[in-house]
Amino acid sequence: MAAKQTKDVSQAKVLNYQPFGSPSEMIIKTTKPYGLFNRLFKWSYGFPSRVPVFEAHNKALESGDTDAFLKNKLNEYGNKLAFPNGSELKEYDDRFALEYKSRVLQVYRASDAVLYYDRDLAGPAGPEFAQELPAEQAAALKAHAQLVDLGFKSDNDTYARYLGADYTVAIRDEGNGAAPEVLRTETKAMYGFVLDGLPVFGAGGKMQCSYVRNNLEMSEMLSFWRQPTEGLDGKPRVLNTRKLIGPVCALFKLAWRKRFFRIVLLHWARLRITGFQLGYFAAPPFIVQKNYIPVYRIRGSIKPRKEEAYEFAYYVPAVRFSTQEKLAIGWPFNSGAIIE
């Protein structure tokens, strides 16, 4: 059975931007956690006092005829990826797709983001792929060349950052009582993004090229990114970390109300906060996003009594805007925060 290992493309250590604060652990009661949270967040973490807001441009939505623009882009990428003339054009609610045999190329309406994959090669499980696993350096060099050729990045790109290689793995179990064998079958060259020196979080801020075999056949490629330009006049003030007390407490109320983390029995759970990061949130490619919003990413885990721990990433707005400003920039946090 094949299983994919996915690296967090916003890892702070890779972007040379370390999370502030040391890991803290506590036992809290979900009904009245405010006093303990107050002690947790009382320190200053050294974040910048002000950060800019960036507009996230979508060329498809800015054009007069969105469908014609996306179809032209699809044909342009298809030509560069050697799709033959007989390829089938398909239209879906959120994207256009070009398909030929096992190969699929998609462009999303909401963000003009691009996804390509080969059904016969992506996420391979066969042991023969492990014997011809592409080397990281070779995969990284080819990924850079292909992304530049497709126009997704440039040689002097100020936003994209190469994060390293990740791998698809297949678990091989002989069934004779021996430990299962873990085989690497696919090499992925991973990219993340930074804005104003801060990491970009979320599914809408990454690029990736995946390869199989020694001849570096591309099994998958994606570019989820909206070209940014600095937006609002001035830089909004970053909220003090004390302002995180309410949203994190709301996380527990949400968990209890929706049984998101299955907190049961005596309402007790162990919460472990592993760190905070300040950065920007990028929505998934199928969602319209007008601006990159500064956010705090709170990472940790919740361990209900007698149950397994659940890891979470919790995004909370790091700046405060008026109602009019929220309407103008397209505020994505209608529920107050985003759980990942």
Question: Overview of this structure, please?
Answer:
With 340 residues, this protein is of the alpha+beta class. It has two domains: 2-55 and 232-339; 61-227, 2-Layer Sandwich (TATA-Binding Protein), CATH 3.30.310. Helices cover 19% and strands 36% of the residues. The protein has helices at residues 34-40, 59-62, 66-80, 127-131, 136-149, 245-258, 323-329; strands at 2-4, 24-29, 54-57, 88-91, 95-100, 103-108, 114-118, 160-172, 181-195, 198-201, 206-212, 217-224, 227-230, 268-281, 291-304, 310-317, 338-339. It has a 17-stranded mixed β-sheet that branches. A hairpin with a 5-residue loop joins strand 6 (103-108) and strand 7.
Q: CATH topology of the largest domain, anyone?
A: TATA-Binding Protein
| Dominant shape | globular
Radius of gyration: 22 Å
For the record, the CATH class of the largest domain is Alpha Beta
Largest sheet, strands/sense/barrel: 17 strands, mixed
Instruction: Count all strands and give the number.
Output: 17
The average pLDDT value, as a whole number, equals: 76
Order of helices and strands: EEHEHHEEEEHHEEEEEEHEEEHE
What is the tally of helical segments? 7
Fraction of residues in helices?
10-25%
Calculate the terminal CA-CA distance, rounded to whole Å. 26 Å
Beta-strand fraction estimate: 35-45%
| Structural class by helix and strand composition | alpha+beta
Number of domains: 2
Second rung of CATH, namely the architecture of the largest domain: 2-Layer Sandwich
Regions with little confidence, pLDDT below 50 for 5+ residues: 1-44, 254-267
